[in-house]
Automatic annotation (TrEMBL):
Its main location: membrane. Keywords: Membrane, Transmembrane, Transmembrane helix, Transport. Belongs to the mitochondrial carrier (TC 2.A.29) family. The chain crosses the membrane at residues 20-41. This is Solute carrier family 25 member 44.
Amino acid sequence: MQQKRNIQIIEWEDLDKRKFYSFGVFMTMAIRATVYPATLIRTRLQVQKGKSLYTGTYDALCKILRAEGLRGLYRGFMVTTFTLISGQAYITTYELVRKYVSNYSKDNTVKSLVAGGSASLVAQSITVPIDVISQQLMMQGQGEHLTRFKVKPKAGAKHSVFFGQTRDIIGQIFAADGIRGFYRGYVASLLTYIPNSAVWWPFYHFYAEQLSKMAPSNCPHLVLQAMAGPLAAATASTVTNPMDVIRARVQVEGRTSVIETFNQLIREEGFWGMTKGLSARIISSAPTAIVMVVGYETLKKLSLRPELVDSRHW
């Protein structure tokens, strides 16, 4: 009986770091551009009261395109390009922590869980101010009545559409809340993304291994990993969505208490309120996971040290 092979994992010490970071910037930007419209829709669905604006993901997509055009789906996108920094910080932290934990445990689940949570902690410390600004920009247009800050219309050059609105929102946030305003929802973000990342990586490796056992022996590893990514993303999104709803409301509505926001959500919309935006989140996370997994695993393959290239089966 033929023995099924395990999915090979390329570790930090196997990589040519110069190639890894060069290719990584392009990968991160491609992922952001691909999934941004679904992220914007998810944010508006989570912040609206009941179904006051949209009845669901498809309804939101149609209404935004009709009222605001394609540009409406990319409100605040230019601000998120700064998350390239947090993206590089995330993958570096993940790989380094995996390497460190391997000194104490060879269990891949333990390494993935600890490294995923640690990477998210570092990345969110950089990302939260960017998220606060971009979410305020996402809510402009049809959703502007749901947010504290509104872009003041100005006549001017085309570049002011992007940079002028961003400066306007930054100025309003600082005037109202100071520096602290840019870290509104930081605790809620940590409570959302640390568990999400800590759940995603172990399930990703778990699903990849299970698929490997069922697939033909000549099936490329990358295909199995591309299938495992969305499964892990759907699992992690479902587990952490309640906290993501609270995070979005804290950041957009300017709330200060996670517990108070949770209690009000339950009073007004019941436990179903905790599922708001879940379908949009899964829809955005599935292609994100495919692009991320294929991109990330290919990135690692391209970044392998030359002497190791022939030793890896893909």
